[in-house]
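TASK: fixed-backbone design
INPUT:
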């Protein structure tokens, strides 16, 4: 095999140093985990920065790497040179060897010289070196070890040959090794006025860290000097193959040849316009593939913006080559094919790379065609009038209406020697605004993403953002990173999700969420979330319900809080830039709709002053959480009344799957409200049990092991205590009500962690155990906890739309994503119905909230670009009328002098819902509950508003919320009454299909296949199984549908619509 190929040169370098007792260290991620000041990893030493400074200790003192690097943003930015020169690249590999206090200059010089001249057999006559002018030691060593004459050792006095980590800290002189490509090329030796030519090219830089800069004027010797070297693999391969350009090596030629073949052009190696375009495409395909594989998505800020620029620059050069069809994803796939052996992460992200590149190219090609045509017309007009400035209004129109990037407009304008009107563009941008209602994870993620895209956001929160209910979701966030090598994958996560939801969720959204989950976790890690780590420093993961894999990343037992704080910090950053305005202690009352029913703003109520006003917004996003207070006492915060989404429903938005209310198996009591005992307690080994003997009143620690009934472990040996929540809640109900084995004769069981050490429990679960101890007075480290099932969350919510791709993912650019049936009104997180089906898997909640906020951002922005008229330009009468309507309503409420107490009426409503619309549902009781709700609705009109003050008076607001809770309780109960089946969290015993104990769900898929291919073979299945499968099939025909509630003419109606099950065939659930 040719020794000079990319693969063999890399291998030879690593093996050479490995044989010299260097540890081969894998390349780190392109996103630095230890240096927030860097846009990308741009050198080999980045991952060792803390080792060099003494903050981190490793098991080795010598290392060698081939490090992935990108230089396309920040201080090191080669983007505009790429393709036009023989050696500039966005992505490259940096070969390097490192000594952490082991060897120093003499050994480093000897190792480098012997590798180049002996291992790689580069002629000594072609090599020369530079040293720092004051480094006499290095000068002498090069003479002694390499035998170089003084004429080939150049003393450089500038900072080019003195390296420092910063203004203070480790620093030292450098020696650079140069290769002479021959006198036929222009350029002089290092340090000369012609040094920037192509003749003398630096191939290796040796940095000798021997000092510490302790102040501006003081530098001291380090006790243990170190070595950091870096050599570009691309330049080395070019030298070893004796070619003029990096693009003429096997690193790039296969990619260039593919582009040439696809375009029908010839690659001449002469830097023609076509050659340059092919070189740009080849380089940018490498950068794109690695950046996406390392968790970066194209966006309009930061790293994502750099990636987008790289991709769009390649796509524009593809247009120059005449590509009419999509091409860039195929070039990127060729990168994966060639480089995944050395970098397995490429193959793991292959589907995602293909999806991201295809979506970006599809979107940008439409933008490019339209934008170039309009821009071309404008350029011709300016030339005819001899003007040199492109108006800001034109730049904004291209950006806003057609999605044409401002930076691309600048590039094209510069090509025509034009500038753009920056002030005019900024003024036009300031007119657009999105209103986000809710400061939890979904609201913050949407705010962050939309502001990142350059659009202003008004963020409205019922309470201080940092008190949003998201902080209560403490267990963790799901993502199939497979850090423990269990064979987990996004596809398995996807299957577990739709299976956990009993196949009622629309599958493209679930698939897209699960495939993006690892990248959401990586993003949060980079934002500073203090996730737990393994002893090796990797992210740690625990198990949660409904899966057999360790898939849940966690920050002790305060995950939700840590995620919320991290996202809030990002939103605060945009606040300081003027892109986000935050209004806390304000309540959303309703959407402002124009004459065509489009949402153009939101009416809000100042909870302190009572002031009601309508705010203009080009789009409104409801991220207002769940409706737990409909049931009175639940695990939800006291602000989770569901009033915002119900208000949207009353204004005409569809409401989906209202009847699916998840009952969490493990809650703890409280006089004011219920509190969740996180599933993480079971994920860390907690065991659920009851005494085998009914009425056993012994203390739990006094009950011997053989007298304990670990009922979940016995019935579900594979999943044990981590069955899905709906399954666990029903089993506790059966144990306590039907078998009468509940603790103290009540609906309670024990959750036991006492077999774990205090140290372990405090490290992994300290936050939630302290909550239990505080509210019960019992230390759960010493005594088993008493837990019971309680209302947790609604699986339903406002109906929202989406746009899927041909391969079953989501087109993130679509304005339809997360839009309700009211144009311009969106919903995200727990406020919408899309992701959980009939039952949510634990730890998918935090994921779905953050994912929806991030995913919908580009689509919302694209919606704004296509509006016929901005909200700021709408007649003021639209907003004044809404203010008047709501002021009159609150005035009427404050004037109510009836005999009903609103809080007592709410308790009656909650009692009816808790009693009859909970774990077990019966049609007769559901009908009676509807009658109770109708009665409560009529009595609402006879309420007495018990406090009529204007300042900080919550009563009128609560009375209005109570009306909404009554309307929501109606459709919850109506949906439950109409749905005559048992699915997920909706359990009607009379419609239980009673799956045979020995049934295998895979048999149903075989049964379906046989039916589709001529008929079922009766001898292949047991008769009882055939009977069950026929009933299951009929049940799905009737009920595998989402319930959709609508409100018309003052009355609710519930109908059903089909569910997208095109990706994973529905089948019976079984957790054995």
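OUTPUT:
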């Amino acid at each position: 095999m040719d020794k000079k190929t990319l693969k063999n040169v890399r291998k030879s370098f690593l093996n050479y140093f490995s044989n010299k007792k260097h540890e081969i260290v894998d390349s780190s991620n392109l996103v630095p985990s230890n240096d927030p000041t860097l846009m990308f990893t741009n050198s080999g030493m980045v991952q060792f920065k803390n080792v060099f400074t003494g903050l981190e200790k490793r098991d080795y003192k010598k290392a060698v790497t081939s490090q992935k690097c990108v230089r396309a943003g920040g201080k090191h930015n080669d983007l505009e040179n790429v393709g036009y020169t023989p050696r500039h690249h966005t992505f490259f590999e940096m070969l390097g060897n490192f000594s952490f206090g082991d060897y120093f200059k003499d050994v480093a010089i000897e190792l480098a010289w012997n590798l180049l001249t002996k291992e790689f057999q580069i002629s000594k006559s072609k090599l020369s070196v530079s040293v720092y002018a004051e480094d006499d030691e290095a000068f002498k060593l090069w003479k002694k070890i390499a035998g170089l004459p003084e004429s080939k050792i150049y003393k450089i006095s500038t900072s080019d040959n003195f390296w420092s980590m910063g203004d203070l800290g480790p620093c030292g002189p450098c020696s650079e090794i140069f290769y002479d490509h021959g006198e036929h090329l222009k350029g002089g030796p290092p340090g000369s006025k012609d040094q920037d030519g192509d003749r003398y090219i630096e191939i290796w830089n040796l940095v000798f860290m021997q000092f510490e800069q302790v102040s501006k004027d003081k530098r001291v010797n380090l006790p243990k000097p170190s070595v950091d070297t870096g050599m570009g693999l691309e330049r080395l391969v070019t030298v070893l193959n004796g070619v003029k350009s990096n693009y003429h090596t096997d690193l790039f030629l296969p990619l260039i040849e593919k582009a040439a073949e696809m375009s029908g052009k010839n690659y001449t190696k002469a830097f023609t316009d076509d050659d340059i375009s092919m070189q740009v495409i080849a380089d940018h395909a490498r950068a794109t593939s690695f950046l996406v594989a390392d968790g970066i998505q194209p966006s309009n800020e930061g790293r994502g913006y750099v990636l987008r620029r790289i991709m769009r620059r390649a796509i524009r050069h593809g247009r120059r080559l005449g590509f009419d069809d999509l091409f860039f994803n195929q070039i990127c796939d060729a990168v994966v094919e060639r480089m995944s052996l050395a970098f397995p992460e490429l193959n793991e992200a292959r589907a995602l790379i293909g999806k991201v590149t295809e979506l970006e190219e599809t979107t940008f090609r439409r933008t490019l065609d339209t934008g170039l045509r309009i821009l071309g017309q404008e350029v011709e007009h300016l030339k005819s009038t001899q003007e040199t400035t492109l108006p800001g209004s034109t730049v904004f129109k291209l950006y806003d209406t057609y999605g044409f990037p401002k930076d691309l407009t600048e590039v094209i304008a510069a090509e025509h020697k034009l500038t753009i009107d920056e002030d005019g563009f900024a003024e036009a941008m300031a007119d657009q605004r999105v209103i986000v209602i809710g400061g939890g994870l979904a609201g913050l993620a949407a705010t962050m993403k939309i502001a990142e895209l350059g659009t202003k956001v008004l963020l409205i929160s019922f309470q201080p953002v940092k008190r949003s209910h998201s902080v209560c979701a403490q267990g963790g966030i799901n993502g199939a990173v497979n850090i423990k090598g269990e064979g987990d994958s996004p596809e398995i996560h996807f299957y577990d999700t739709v299976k956990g939801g009993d196949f009622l969720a629309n599958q493209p959204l679930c698939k897209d969420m699960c495939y993006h989950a690892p990248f959401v976790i990586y993003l949060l890690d980079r934002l500073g979330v203090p996730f737990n780590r393994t002893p090796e420093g990797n992210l740690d993961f625990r198990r949660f319900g409904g899966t057999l894999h360790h898939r849940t990343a966690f920050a002790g037992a305060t995950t939700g809080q840590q995620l919320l704080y991290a996202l809030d910090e990002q939103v605060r950053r945009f606040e300081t830039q003027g892109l986000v305005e935050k209004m806390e202690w304000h309540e959303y009352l309703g959407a402002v709709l124009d004459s065509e029913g489009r949402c153009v703003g939101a009416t809000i109520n100042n909870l302190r002053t009572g002031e009601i006003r309508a705010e203009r917004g080009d789009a409104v996003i409801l991220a207002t959480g769940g409706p737990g207070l409909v049931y009175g006492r639940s695990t939800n915060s006291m602000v989770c009344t569901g009033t915002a989404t119900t208000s949207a429903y009353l204004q005409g938005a569809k409401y989906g799957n209202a009847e699916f209310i998840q009952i969490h198996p493990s809650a703890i009591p409280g006089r004011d409200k219920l509190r969740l005992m996180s599933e993480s307690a079971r994920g860390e080994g907690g065991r659920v049990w009851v005494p085998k003997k009914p009425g056993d009143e012994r203390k739990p620690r006094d009950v011997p092991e053989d007298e304990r009934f670990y009922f979940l472990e016995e019935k579900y040996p594979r999943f044990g205590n981590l069955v899905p929540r709906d399954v666990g809640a029903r089993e506790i109900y059966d144990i306590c009500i039907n078998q009468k084995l509940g603790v103290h004769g009540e609906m309670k069981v024990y959750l036991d962690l006492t077999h774990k050490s205090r140290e372990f429990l405090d490290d992994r679960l300290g936050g939630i155990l302290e909550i239990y101890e505080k509210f019960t007075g019992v230390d759960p480290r010493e005594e088993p906890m008493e837990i019971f099932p309680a209302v947790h969350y609604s699986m339903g919510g406002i109906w929202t739309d989406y746009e899927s791709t041909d391969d079953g993912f989501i087109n993130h650019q679509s304005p339809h994503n997360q839009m309700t049936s009211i144009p311009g009104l969106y919903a995200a997180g727990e406020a919408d119905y899309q992701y959980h089906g009939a039952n949510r898997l634990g730890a998918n909640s935090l994921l779905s909230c953050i994912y929806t906020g991030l995913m919908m951002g580009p689509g919302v922005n694209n919606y704004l670009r296509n509006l016929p008229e901005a909200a700021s330009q709408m007649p003021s009468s639209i907003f004044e009328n809404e203010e008047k309507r709501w002021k009159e309503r609150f005035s009427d409420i404050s004037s109510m002098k009836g005999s009903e107490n609103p809080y007592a009426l709410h308790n009656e409503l909650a009692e009816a819902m808790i009693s009859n619309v909970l774990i077990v549902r019966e049609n007769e009781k559901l009908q009676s509950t509807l009658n109770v709700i109708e009665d409560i609705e009529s009595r609402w009109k006879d309420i007495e508003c018990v406090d009529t003050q204007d300042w900080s008076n919550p009563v009128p607001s609560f009375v209005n919320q109570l009306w909404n809770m009554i309307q929501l309780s109606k459709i919850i109960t109506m949906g439950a009454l109409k749905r005559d089946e048992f699915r997920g969290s909706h359990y009607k015993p009379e419609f239980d299909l009673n799956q045979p104990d020995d049934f295998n769900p895979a048999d149903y898929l075989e049964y379906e296949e046989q039916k589709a291919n001529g008929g079922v073979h009766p001898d292949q299945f047991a008769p009882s199984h055939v009977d069950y499968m026929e009933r299951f099939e009929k049940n799905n025909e009737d009920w595998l549908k989402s319930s959709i509630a609508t409100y018309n003419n003052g009355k609710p109606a519930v109908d059903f619509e089909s569910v997208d099950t095109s990706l994973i065939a529905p089948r019976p659930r079984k957790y054995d």
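COMMENT: The mean pLDDT is 92.
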